[in-house]
């Protein structure tokens, strides 16, 4: 009984000691290092860069979330609502030339990508504000919106992926949901 009491006292003292450990102060909205590490493991950073056949360099940076059993359209990337198109910081896309996106003009530069997923169509949003946390979005900063038909993928993709190829096709794939748009150099 005496040994049990001593062990219990030591455990309580150790617990109180660990409770006193402080993490350095964080800027507003900034995650603590342990939270950052967890977020990075759950949604690792990814990127793609390609120089298209017509000479446009497309550079995309995003964090790649996993489905983890969730259903697209209801539990994540809800249909009819603006979605950050990834995780963590805003997904970015940049073009080194003026381009057209599915025939609509967009100036060279860097943009945040947001989407409004739907059951049959998705709205791809190119927003002028790209250097921010992904859940922040203001429609007044939209540079372009393009509606595209959804693609039905033949096999389910657990982790979201954004790809770009030399033809200028940019594709978003997650679960069995897909959406794509065409980038061409502006004439």
Show the helix and strand layout.
Elements lengths: L1 H18 L13 H10 L2 E7 L5 E7 L28 E4 L3 E3 L2 E3 L2 E8 L4 E7 L14 E23 L4 E17 L2
Antiparallel strand pairs: 1-2, 2-3, 3-6, 4-5, 4-9, 6-7, 7-8, 8-9
Give a short synopsis of this structure.
This protein has helices at 2-19, 33-42; strands at 45-51, 57-63, 92-95, 99-101, 104-106, 109-116, 121-127, 142-164, 169-185. The chain is mainly beta.
Commentary on this structure:
- With 187 residues, the chain is mainly beta.
- Helices cover 15% and strands 42% of the residues.
- The chain has two helices and nine strands, in the order ααβββββββββ.
- The protein has helices at residues 2-19, 33-42; strands spanning 45-51, 57-63, 92-95, 99-101, 104-106, 109-116, 121-127, 142-164, 169-185.
- The chain has a nine-stranded antiparallel sheet with strand order 1-2-3-6-7-8-9-4-5, with no helix packed on it.
- The radius of gyration is 22 Å and the shape is globular.
- It starts with a helix and ends with a strand.
């Amino acid at each position: 009984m005496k040994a049990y009491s001593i062990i219990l006292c030591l455990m309580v003292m150790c617990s109180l000691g660990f409770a006193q450990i402080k993490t350095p102060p964080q800027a507003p909205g900034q995650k603590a290092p342990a939270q950052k590490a967890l977020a990075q493991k759950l949604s690792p950073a990814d990127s793609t860069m390609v120089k298209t056949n017509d000479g446009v360099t497309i550079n995309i940076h995003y964090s790649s979330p996993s489905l983890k059993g969730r259903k697209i359209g209801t539990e994540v990337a809800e249909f009819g609502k603006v979605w950050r198109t990834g995780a963590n910081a805003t997904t970015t896309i940049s073009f080194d030339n003026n381009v057209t996106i599915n025939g609509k003009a967009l100036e060279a530069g860097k943009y945040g990508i947001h989407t409004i997923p739907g059951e049959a169509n998705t709205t791809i949003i190119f927003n002028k504000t790209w250097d921010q946390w992904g859940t922040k979005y203001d429609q007044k900063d939209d540079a372009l919106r393009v509606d595209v038909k959804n693609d039905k993928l033949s096999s389910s993709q657990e982790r979201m992926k954004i790809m770009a190829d030399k033809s200028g096709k940019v594709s978003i794939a997650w679960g069995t949901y897909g959406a794509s748009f065409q980038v061409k150099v502006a004439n």
